[in-house]
Every structure is written in structure tokens, then in C-alpha cells.
Design brief:
alpha+beta; plastid; globular; 20% strand; eight-stranded mixed β-sheet; chloroplast; single chain; 33% helix
Length: 266
């Protein structure tokens, strides 16, 4: 007959042992889940978004003044921090955590040949072994969470979109930076308002870097390229985001250098 555990009785040692194991498993799961989620729950929660305006306001059109978004998050609180400034807010990207996980999202408004577009950048892999090992998972998660990211941009910079409603129809271009060819690509997610409600990139058009082949549905959208000469239809003339699009080539070049060095030593 099973014994009852009364308030004045101590739990059996077997119960304590099982409870300790359960707590350990729960804590282990807690440490794994935030890493896999990157941006927590897929549902955007406005109260958890902190917005910082640095050197910009909601009155100046991004076709006349550079406008960049730097979005980071905390695994501990699940809070998001969005800096809206003229260039990347590097203060958000300091510390060992950001350098290890590289789960920030950077974006900038650009006017190319008279048309405004939002260019979003995600770092998938390259830099250290941990990112390379999780490249496939990171690509999946960034793609899955991107609508949440865009909602954070739209909510945090809502007054700008109200003042210039035409920006809601601007095309969203997403750049995935990776040293793995499969994930080193650019995708067009369509107009901003449509991209906000998109659940995946299944309906987007996509290209691998260095290729002009459309791998998605047929579309007249083309990757925007600024004029080669000085003009008034492109702004800013150069991207404020210095992330390389040639990580695959760089990795292959480094591998070739390593092989040559080994051959010289042998």
C-alpha cells in the first residue's frame, strides 16, 4: 500500500532523487530553448520592445537622411531593443554573447534609382565553429522569425510609416550572410505590408549571391543596384552595413591558403 506524505513527514529519498533529476532536465531545456528560438516567441509583443532614436526623428524621409535599424534581444527577459539611427548602433553588439551567437538583425532604408526599399541583413554562419555547426538551424529560425522582426521595425518606427505611407509599399530585401553556399543568398519578401503578415519565404523570390538566376516564382523584381556614377536617384550611394556578401569565396580562399601551407610543410 502506497504511503501518504503528510506535512510533518519528510519525502522519501527516492522522491528527492527523482525531483532533482527533473529539475536538472528542466534547467537544461531552459538553456537550450532560448538559443534555438533566437527571438523567443513568434508573436510580437509591443511592451517588450524598447526603441532608441539616435540622431534621427520621424520627420526626415530616409531618402534624404540615412536610416538604419539595429535589433537585438535578451534571452533572459525576451525583451527586444531596436535602435533607429543613421548607421549601425555598435554599442548593442558588444560583449561575448553577441559575438558568440550573432543573432542581431540589421536593416537600412535605401533609395535606388528613385525607388525606396528596406534591406535586412542576417548573419547565418562564418566567424567561428559554433555558427558553422548550426548554419541550417539558424537559417530556418531567422526565416521563421523574420515577420516578427519586420513587425518590430514597423511598430518602433510607426510614426515614420504614418508620415510617409508610401514606404509601406517598399520592397523588402533580405540578405542571409553565410560561408555555406546554400544559405548565402538574398530574398525579396515583397512589399513591407505584405511581408509583415508572411509566415515564411515560400512565396518570395530568391537568388544566390553572385548568381542572377531566379530560384523562386517568376517575378519582375530584381536586386536593386545603385548607379555606377554619382547621381541624385540613389541614396545613400553606399550601404552603411559593411557585412561581406562573399563569405563563401573567402572561406574557399582560406581553405586554399591552408592547403598550400600544408603542402609546403610536408
Amino acid at each position: 500500500m502506497a504511503s501518504l506524505i503528510l506535512p510533518n513527514q519528510s519525502p522519501p529519498s527516492s522522491f528527492l532523487h527523482q525531483n532533482t533529476i527533473s529539475e536538472r532536465k528542466f534547467k537544461k531545456i531552459q538553456t537550450i530553448v532560448p538559443v534555438a528560438r533566437l527571438f523567443g516567441a513568434s508573436i510580437f509583443e509591443a511592451p517588450k520592445l524598447k526603441v532608441l532614436f539616435i540622431g534621427v526623428d520621424d520627420k526626415k524621409h530616409p531618402g534624404n537622411l540615412p536610416r538604419t535599424y539595429t535589433l537585438t534581444h535578451s534571452d533572459v527577459t525576451s525583451n527586444l531593443t531596436l535602435a533607429i539611427s543613421q548607421s549601425i548602433n555598435n554599442n548593442q553588439l558588444q560583449g561575448w554573447y553577441n559575438k558568440l551567437y550573432r543573432d542581431e538583425v540589421i536593416a537600412e532604408w535605401r533609395k535606388v534609382k528613385g525607388y525606396m526599399s528596406l534591406h535586412v541583413h542576417c548573419h547565418i554562419s562564418g566567424g567561428h565553429f559554433f555558427l558553422d555547426l548550426c548554419a541550417h538551424l539558424r537559417f530556418y529560425i531567422f526565416t521563421k522569425e523574420l515577420p516578427l522582426v519586420l513587425k518590430a521595425f514597423a511598430y518602433g518606427d510607426g510614426n515614420l510609416l504614418k508620415n510617409y505611407p508610401e514606404l509601406q509599399e517598399a520592397l523588402v530585401w533580405v540578405y542571409f550572410h553565410s560561408n555555406v553556399t546554400e544559405f548565402n543568398r538574398v530574398e525579396c519578401w515583397g512589399p513591407l505590408m505584405k511581408a509583415l503578415s508572411s509566415s515564411s519565404s515560400s512565396s518570395s523570390s530568391s537568388w544566390s549571391y553572385g548568381s542572377a538566376t531566379d530560384e523562386g516564382e517568376s517575378s519582375n523584381w530584381e536586386v536593386p543596384k545603385t548607379c555606377l556614377k554619382e547621381c541624385s536617384c540613389c541614396f545613400p550611394p553606399m550601404s552603411s552595413i559593411p557585412w561581406s556578401h562573399d563569405l563563401v569565396k573567402k572561406t574557399q580562399h582560406d581553405d586554399d591558403d591552408t592547403n598550400q601551407w600544408l603542402q609546403q610543410k610536408s
